[in-house]
Write a structure and sequence with these properties.
Strands 1-2-4-3-5 form a 5-stranded mixed β-sheet. A 5-stranded parallel β-sheet has the order 7-6-11-12-13, with helices on both faces. By secondary structure, the chain is an alpha/beta fold. The longest helix has 23 residues, at 408-430. The protein is built from 17 helices and 15 strands. The chain has 3 domains: 1-66 and 440-460, Glutamate Dehydrogenase, chain A, domain 3 (Glutamate Dehydrogenase, Chain A, domain 3, Orthogonal Bundle); 71-205, Rossmann fold; 222-385, NAD(P)-binding Rossmann-like Domain (Rossmann fold, 3-Layer(aba) Sandwich). It is 49% helix and 15% strand. Bound molecules: NADPH dihydro-nicotinamide-adenine-dinucleotide phosphate (NDP) and (2Z)-2-iminopentanedioic acid. NADPH dihydro-nicotinamide-adenine-dinucleotide phosphate is lined by residues 112, 179-182, 184, 223, 251-256, 275-277, 334-336, 359-361, 386, 389.
Amino acid sequence: MTISVPESIGGQAALQQHVDDFMMRVAAQSPGETEFHQAVREVVDSVMPLVLSKRVYREAKVLERLVVPERVIMFRVVWTDDTGQVQINRGYRVQMNGLLGPYKGGLRFHPSVTLGVLKFLAFEQIFKNCLTTLPMGGAKGGSDFDPKGRSDQEVMRFCQAFMSELCRYIGPDIDVPAGDIGVGGREIGFLFGQYRRLTQRFNGTLTGKNVNWGGSNLRPEATGYGAVYFASEMLSTRGESVKGKTATVSGSGNVAQYTVEKLNTLGAKVVTLSDSDGTIVDQDGITAEKLAWVMELKNVRRGRIREYADHFKGTKYLAGKRPWSVPCDLAFPSATQNEIDEDDARLLVRNGCYCVSEGANMPSRPEAVDVFLDAKILYGPGKAANAGGVAVSGLEMNQNSGCMRRSREDVDAQLCTIMHSIHEGCVKFGQEDGFVNYVRGANCAAFVRIADAMVQQGCI
Ligand code: NDP
Ligand code: 2IT
């Protein structure tokens, strides 16, 4: 779908001026929140022609409203460590936009968490959730708490203290948090336990729960599997599949692990994994057996990825390095924001990579995105490619409200269908002379639905 910019706007330079003016106001309203500005600019770049071409969007000030959270909750989290010392962290929940359903989005526990980081993630989440077509608004939360090196007891005490405050602001039809970096099955268990104790309610307020007590089949797998399904959709536009391809994956947490699992099942070879200390390279491929070892290392022993190179002979550890210098056909950034810079992107493309499917949120810097788009490779931005996680969270909410459980096969089939329809939406809005710009496609497909809801629900 081509969006024609009205004559009255005065061409590309005038369009750019509208974007720059808008971004200047955003920067003035939220000083120093660089990740948030980055996420907003990408969307505004894509959707400004739509806004300018539709008077009702301009009059309803849809863009101006979208960049202001509906509500931000900030609180102190006080807990005691194993030595009896009092520890203090900051807790947050950014309820960004509730037009399409209860606020929905993960919780991140990582020392780098700030309000600006959570605003970027909550902003992205509005569009991502919208693409799933499920009834979910956008939110994100978390804390600067660092779970690394903490005992299970310490993590439990922190989660209980965090939930003691958060529980006032969430609920199955209000706001439904889930996991993100540093928040997996263990943390969701502790958070849910405290929520139930304080509210005396057993309900679907959190997703990512254990399947024994209300969780959905396939939720742990969903983000990684979804990112691979999205890559398969992109490859199918060129008559190709992931079978026989070589892939690089960054990170070694939840998303990375299940990305590797699905790539293996579909016949690709994965040659890297990483963490914030470095990258392991295994040219023979990280097979199912090796992946099982990684899962035990990361999820049970909570060790570091460098141990892989000590354990499996003939493999390499690149200390302090990211995986992007390793030649591949497909790349799956699955660690964190801005983990691919311009040089990384150039190296990837030069070494033959022609498909990037983002499991992480905003892992590519804007200059790296430009490299991918200029090279016309298949580039699936996070808000489309990693939407499988929140999509299955949406299915978990649906199962909880209906007091039922879907089978693995049923959830997997729904996940495939959702990733297919997200891809179709991107293609519909992102076609450019035989090339699909998935960034513009994802942003515009989501924006139209949210903007229309804003107009329809009035001035709120
Ligand atoms: P995990 O905590 O399970 O794993 C995170 C991985 O990324 C770890 O290997 C970690 O290494 C690495 N990492 C984290 N921060 C950094 C950093 N600053 N620099 C380098 N490496 C880093 O998180 P997830 O797998 O759940 O999340 C990974 C990404 O996927 C995030 O961007 C998240 O927002 C996104 N995402 C997650 C979804 C989910 O369902 N979980 C859904 C959609 C997106 P280390 O151990 O050294 O910190
Ligand atoms: O970034 C994300 O989409 C997530 N961390 C998952 C959110 C969710 O509510 O499942």
